[in-house]
Write a structure and sequence with these properties.
The protein has 159 residues and is mainly α. 83% of the residues lie in helices and 0% in strands. Helix 2 runs antiparallel to helix 3. The longest helix is centred in the N-terminal third of the chain and has 48 residues. The N and C termini lie far apart (94 Å).
């Protein structure tokens, strides 16, 4: 049963708000990271839509090249989606941490261990999201390298 909410001192609420500030700033950072991930996913989707008609109209080596590019783009989409999922999980866990901080303060629950474990889970989830993002960026940077056959191509001057 919850105590009368009018009985809480302003100092108790202020202390709880002070404790919740760090997780709230963490939410802001996670939100910024999610913005980067969603923008990246959007660009990958746009690129795959550009490649699809080129794949369908190509033949031979060119067809194989477009197919390979679409396979890389598909892999990148999956990686970014996984990074988004882990980042959202981290944000949700952060929200639960903040809610538990206030619930523990109001109802005098002894949930310090649960809060600590949830915060650890939050950090693990965002670390996994960052790790997946690193893998995706490495894959993306390898995929956009200029083909060596184009670099070695010379145009004959017609005199």
């Amino acid at each position: 049963m919850l105590p009368n909410l009018d009985q809480f001192a302003v100092s108790t609420v202020a202390e709880t708000v002070r404790l919740a500030v760090a997780p709230v700033f963490l939410l802001s950072g996670i939100g910024a990271f999610l913005n980067v991930l969603v923008s990246r996913l959007s660009r990958i989707v746009d690129r795959s839509r550009d490649c699809e008609p080129k794949l369908l109209s190509s033949r031979g080596r060119e067809h194989d090249r477009w197919l390979g590019e679409l396979q890389v783009l598909d892999r990148r989409m999956n990686l970014v989606s996984a990074a988004i999922s882990y980042s959202v999980l981290s944000a949700v866990l952060t929200c639960v941490v903040v809610a538990l901080l206030f619930a523990a303060s109001i109802a005098e629950f002894h949930v310090g261990t649960a809060i600590a474990l949830l915060f650890i889970a939050t950090m693990v989830a965002i670390a996994i999201g960052f790790g997946i993002f690193l893998v995706e960026t490495r894959l993306g940077s390898r995929a956009v390298r200029v083909r060596s056959d184009l670099l070695q191509h010379r145009v004959d001057d017609a005199d």
